[in-house]
Amino acid sequence: MNLTPHRRSAPLAPIRLTRYFLVMAEKEPPEPKRRNKTLSVADVLSGALDPVLKKRGFASRDIITHWRAIAPPPYDQTTMPDKLVWPRSTGHGHEGAVLYLRCGPGQALFVQHAAPEIAQSVNRYFGYHLVSEIRLSAEPFTSGSADKRQKHRQPSQSEIAKVGAAIEKVEDDDLREALRVLGLALSGRSEPKGG
Fold first, then answer.
1. Mean pLDDT, consecutive 10-residue segments, the chain of 195 residues?
2. Which Pfam families match (predicted)?
3. Which residue segment(s) compose the domain that 166 sits in?
4. 3-class SS at 136?
5. Which of 91, 92, 129, 189, CA to CA, is 20 to 30 A from 168?
6. What is the distance between the alpha carbons of residues 19 and 78, in angstroms, rounded to a whole number?
């Protein structure tokens, strides 16, 4: 047994550390990123939504945001993706995930019957074997706010006359026509409030 003390390497010299801090002090700190610019709501919410979607098994929000383009009719209106469950790795190659769908009342039987067609549509959209099976979720289907369209009504003769009077002094024909269409569309958006 050797009882001689083990030789340690010398600690970092204080000169090296001071030289490092002097070099770092000479560099100017980077300017902070400016946040006073216009951002879309989608950009702002994407950071908040991504962790929630990842908990539901979605790597990206494409399958949810583009569901109307992905699903075949009428399932684009009556179903909605709920979660995507990936199988545990068994080493047998690439298996697709199980897509759980929420469906409208009375649509469960039709969705189960068309499950292979829906899975093919999803796989075709993404270009690879993403979904191997479609199952129904126990969660209820609620249609989105995109379905709630305002009822357009025809503008009355007085509204047509009011729009015509407002744009009669516009000299450019194309601009006058565009303003007329806009004015009539705005006047026919909702029922006039009485009172």
1. 57 56 62 70 70 70 86 90 82 77 90 95 90 91 58 81 91 90 79 50
2. DciA (PF05258)
3. 150-195
4. strand
5. 189
6. 68
